[in-house]
Amino acid sequence: GLLKSFVSAVHGARRRAARDDRAETPADRLLTARGLPCGPDTAALGCPTVAPARSIVKRARTQDSFKAREAMARVALLLAFGARASAKCLSSDALEHEFLGITGLEFMPSEGSCCQFDVCGLPCAQPHDPKNAPKFYGRSVAMAVAAFCAIGLVASYYVGGDTAKFFVAGRTLPLPIVVMTLASQCIDANAVLGNADLSYWYHFYDGAVLPIGLGLSLILNGLFLAKPINEMKLLTLPDLYARKYGRLTEVLGSLICTASFIALLAGNLVGCGKILAYLYPTVPLKAGIVTSGLVMLLYTAAGGLVSVAYSDCAQAMFGLLGVAVCALWAAHHGNKAPPDSIGFPGYTYPDTFGQRVCDKYDGVPCENDAAKCCYNTEKWCPSDDNCRADNGAYWWKGGDARIFDSVNEQGGNQMLNPHSLTPFPNAILFNWATVFILAFGNLAALDFQARCMAAKTAKIAQIGCLMAGILGIMVATPFALMGGVARYYYGPDSMHAEFEADTCHRAIDFPTCAQWIPDKQAVLRVLTKVAPNVIGAWTLIGIVAASMSTSDGAILAMSTVASHNLFANLPRFLPKHFDADLVTTKNKLTLTRFFGIPCTVAAILIACYKADTTGYLLVVAFDIVLAGCVVPIFGACYCKTPSPTAGLAAMVGGSLLRIILEFSLPKDGMLIAPFGGDEFLDYGRPKSSLYPTFFDVPEADKWSRDSDQCEQSRLEDWTGLDSMLAPAFSLVCFLVVHFLEKFGGVTLVSSWLVKPVPEELDDDFLPKKADESIPEPPSTPVKPKAPAVLPKADEEAAAEPVHKAVDEESAEGRGCAVA
Questions:
Q1: How confident is the model at residue 655 (pLDDT cuts 50, 70, 90)?
Q2: How far apart are CA 401 and CA 408, in angstroms?
Q3: Alpha-carbon gap, residue 219 to 443, rounded angstroms
Q4: What is the distance between the terminal CA atoms of the chain, rounded to a whole angstrom?
Q5: What is the distance between the alpha carbons of residues 530 and 523, in angstroms, rounded to a whole number?
Q6: Cα dist. 737→626, 656, 659, 709 in Å?
């Protein structure tokens, strides 16, 4: 009956009767995988689809071989006459035919079934509740977005036509505003939704590294760069390149930073559009992305940095508190990660009697090996309508709980031990590279530095960075725990679990159906169907607020750089084609608002192309600037007179090496470095129809986990190494060229392109003092006085101190303190 054949229904159903005899147990009589009555309110807990009743006599596979060959012959005959299956489950024709012979099916997947059931005996993934998220969530988010936009538009009246207020908020931002606006830039949709998504798809630190890296960047900025950048009274970060290294470096830096922020904006538009599409199912994802981009462009263009800064404060209040409350709920949620699988009839536990898992589920001696501990059918599945079971996806000790609790019997944390996630691979190289990329690459972030420039004093800029960085790490890092909660309700042991049948893996002991396919909306489902309504809505508002805060800052930064550092330089590079007064103080505001349009459109296009990605574009954005733009910033701040050619060489050298390494290093797209062990093998294609080794069946019916039964290749992706080598090479380029020109007497480049721009010509937006007003010309011409004629001896005496001062200054400027 059912209980005796349940072992053949989960993971390894290799012998099946005809589908005509199926008798499904009514859903209202089942229990969830966690022992609660199955119903609409507990659907996410995993109501088991109990396998159909069959009259199957357990016997050795060798006794079934004759019937299998007969069935295979019938299938071959059908194929020969053109009666072909409508689809395939396995890439191997021989294995597909073998399963068809074993099951007696004409094709797979059979009508009304799925590959993971026909091949592996895993219940088909149950569809999600067709009902949309309650309107309460959508209305709450819409009202919050409207409020944020209203704040930004009201702030635009304060700006008027004042360019200083638009670009740098009059350089008057106080400490609370600086802290809130920097924190809101740090906690964006990538660091929140992308964080939880990556934690759910993979493991805790795969998501947590995002807010950790962003927070560290603010701390580093406060320690090393915020003070000198604020004191320089810059308008944009590329102005620093112009003052220290010349126009060519300014233009190259502007192009690189703009490309970086287009990717950053795209990542945030994906997060915001994803929420809108989920809350309003009639709105396609790409339409949500476009709508988000246009809304953010509207109020950013209206109010500039004043609008952005004060709307960021409201967004930070909602965002920080919402994310913090949700993280607190996840940390104290009773089911914060999937535990050990309880299994099913015929399931063997990973330990034995007197040990944790076996005793936890009151295991009994196995039928084929009494020394092993097996599923207690009498206790957990006494009848068809009272059966507690799951997919047996976590047959190893601890399940995912050992990872989210940072406990591993094999020793080591995920960030310290490559094998801490066994039997799964650990992307430890890429995770450390992500922290490095975000911590140092973000130092060239246009929006971060714009807020430091707008701070009232250098001390406020410093303290604001430090406080915002600590706040960001403390609030956003625990949000990665949402990944564990999402795995509990929508993970491999849930009723919604979906597996790729045509995969095998020796490390996790699955001859078929080895690869679990995550639900891309799992985190949003937890927020709207599991979390309390208030917490769920608050968190959604917080994620949207975080997305808006970073997006508006990115739009403003890009459009300012495009007009001030790129468009305004056209007359200098192409004097025959553009007038010298192409950009003036009067039209710069209009041009900046205009350039926000192409920058936003470019980001929207990238976001639509990578619409299923959250978090990844954040790393891409700051990987772009880390390669060549960060070292020149440190050189400008810590070298009194840095070599202009050195800054150019560092920017070009680091960026070129990054491009070369991108295409020369081995990369298979899995972001896993090639460590030893079977867990660092990629999924293979199945070659065996036998059972996994954790089944209570005769040894002859278990697969051997050899390469001939599952051929796998080793994962090899060195992504992250290139991101760390490029800035190191950029530093070497800077130091070599700087010391050659300062101490070696070598002039590598002599051109106006690498001539530092005088400070007084670089910023039209400094507030003028009362005594600096330009006097009106006299009404009548004044005859110039004749120059005084000095005796030759007196002339030489007067010139001597001048030459001496110049020599001392040039000698003093050769030193360079490298941070």
A1: very high
A2: 10
A3: 10
A4: 74
A5: 10
A6: 19, 17, 21, 58
Angle of CA points 175, 181, 183, to nearest 5°? 100
Give the count of beta carbons closer than 10 Å to the beta carbon of residue 376.
Answer: 18
What is the Cα–Cα distance from 559 to 214, expressed in whole angstroms?
Answer: 23
Are 811 and 805 in contact by the 8 Å Cβ rule? The answer is no
Give the pair of three-digit tokens for residue 720.
């992250």
Please tell me the distance from the alpha carbon of residue 667 to that of residue 671, in angstroms, as a whole number: 8
CA-closest candidate to residue 316, choices 478, 158, 153, 467: 467
Q: Is 346:7 a contact under the CB 8 Å cutoff?
A: yes
Task: State the CB neighbour count (10 A cutoff) for residue 560.
Answer: 26
Tokens at 763, concatenated: 């910023």
User: How many Å separate Cα 801 from the centre of its chain?
Assistant: 60
Single-letter residue type at 541: I
The answer to whether 642 and 817 have CB atoms below 8 angstroms apart is no
How far apart CA 715 and CA 427 sit, in angstroms, is 11
Structure tokens at 497: 């679990």
Paired residues of 499 in beta bridges = 516
Ranges of H-type helices in 187-284 = 189, 195-201, 204-220, 226-231, 237-245, 247-279
User: How far apart are the C-alpha atoms of 654 and 516, rounded to whole Å?
Assistant: 39
Q: Inform me whether the pLDDT recorded for 297 exceeds 90.
A: no
What does the pLDDT read at residue 680? Answer: 96
Helices 458-476, 446-454: crossing angle, 10 deg rounding: 140
- Rounded Cα gap, residues 461 and 454, in angstroms: 8
CA 89 – CA 70 distance, rounded (Å): 21
User: What does DSSP assign to residue 364?
Assistant: E
pTM for this prediction? 0.83
C-alpha dihedral (310, 315, 318, 321), degrees to nearest 10: -90
Closest to 150 in 3D by CA, of 313, 307, 292: 307
Q: How far is CA 436 from CA 77, 447, 671, in A?
A: 61, 19, 16
- 3-class state of residue 505 by DSSP: strand
CA distances from 391 to 46, 281, 343, 521 (A): 9, 30, 6, 21
Entry field: residues in the chain:
819
Taking only the tens place, the pLDDT of each residue in 126-174 is 988 766 667 889 999 999 888 888 876 776 666 555 555 555 556 888 9
Backbone dihedral region for residue 372 (phi beyond 0: left; psi -120 to 50: alpha; all else: beta): beta
616, 715 contact by CB (below 8 A): no
Provide, rounded to the nearest whole percent, the portion of the chain with pLDDT above 90: 57
Average pLDDT, the chain: 81
Q: Read off the amino acid at residue 666.
A: P
Q: How confident is the model at residue 483 (pLDDT cuts 50, 70, 90)?
A: very high
Interhelix angle 522-529/247-279, nearest 10 degrees: 50
Which of 20-34, 295-309, 695-709 shows the lowest per-residue confidence on average (mean pLDDT)?
A: 20-34
> What tokens does 326 get?
């949700």
Element of type H or E holding 653 = helix 644-664
| E runs forming strands in 648-801 | 685-686, 710-711
* Both tokens assigned to 655: 């960026």
Q: How many CB atoms lie within 10 A of CB 583?
A: 21
**Helix (H/G/I), strand (E/B), else coil: 173:** strand
Contact 592, 300 (CB under 8 A): no
Rounded to the nearest 10 degrees, the angle between the axes of helix 247-279 and helix 446-454 is 110
Non-local CB neighbours of 808 within 8 Å, separated by 6+ positions: none
Distances (CA, A) of 810 to 171, 633, 640, 797: 33, 22, 10, 21
Look-up: residue for tokens 């890439």?
91
Least confident of 180-194, 618-632, 743-757: 180-194
What is residue 386's three-state secondary structure?
Answer: strand
